[in-house]
Design goal:
Mean pLDDT: 85
Strand order of the largest sheet: 3-4-5-12
Distance between the termini: 84 Å
Number of helices: 4
Largest sheet: 4 strands, antiparallel
Strand content: 25-35%
Number of strands: 13
Length: 242
């Protein structure tokens, strides 16, 4: 009986199928297959461990960097029965009952056409889930008051926008909220895929580098903060009724 062997795992096989197969070869094959499967299982387990460690490192890297691209500034506001409190950690607390005839809102940032245009494909997020229809929105300024996108708790993709917009936090009319916390954030879709965790705005590495260069050139800090400065907002330009 002629025995030949497979190319990759060296398993014995018989060329003449009419011959009785050797039990020795069968036993050797079983041992080889068992060893190969055990080795494969160990490799898979190690890959899973490495993948978890890599992902943890990636999440830490993303969440510790300039993830949130939404720099904003606003002041406390009471509107239609809702008290909006601006917190020091980049969040906004909303409390009360909207007893007005329209949505209650606070504008936290005005974005130029160039600024919002650069965010196409990014994710806007920060609305607490399942909270009385509350949302964060991007709405056209000075025109039709068109609402381009809303985040109602799960994050939403920003479309291509070519007009100036207001970033609103909105509580619909007749709705009650109890100290719910909004965490406004715009981040890249790649960062969002890694982690949905809110991070406050931080200047980008390039912005910080430019600021350092300017300071080394003798400029004052206040004169070089324009790219990283939180923009002061005058709320109430639009209706936020969409």
């Amino acid at each position: 009986m002629a025995t030949t062997y497979t190319q990759y795992y060296n398993l014995g096989k018989q060329e003449d199928h009419a011959d009785k197969f050797s039990m020795t070869v069968l036993t050797e094959n079983a041992d080889k297959i068992d060893a190969a499967l055990h080795g494969l299982a160990e490799d898979v387990a190690q890959l899973q461990t490495d993948a978890l460690a890599d992902r943890a490192a990636l999440v830490e890297l993303v969440d510790s960097g300039p993830k949130n691209e939404l720099s904003w500034s606003a002041v406390d506001k009471v509107h239609n029965g809702i008290t909006f409190t601006v917190n020091g950690d980049g969040t906004v607390t909303a409390d009360g009952t909207n007893n007005g005839s329209a949505n209650s809102f606070i504008s936290i940032k005005i974005m130029t056409a160039a600024e919002i245009g650069a965010e196409a494909g990014c994710i806007i997020s920060g609305t607490p889930e399942n909270e009385a229809g509350a949302y964060i929105s991007l709405e056209e300024r000075g025109g039709s008051y068109r609402t381009y996108v809303k985040d109602m708790g799960a994050g939403n993709t920003i479309p291509a926008i070519s007009t100036e917009v207001n970033v609103y936090i909105v509580i619909p009319k007749n709705q009650t909220v109890n100290n719910i916390i909004f965490r406004p954030m715009i981040c890249s879709s790649a960062a969002w895929a890694v982690s949905h965790e809110f991070q406050p705005y931080r200047p980008s590495y390039q912005e910080m580098y430019d600021m350092i260069l300017a300071l080394q050139g003798g400029n004052s800090l206040s004169s070089v903060q324009s790219t990283a400065q939180l923009t002061s907002i005058s709320a109430g330009d639009n209706n936020a009724d969409s």
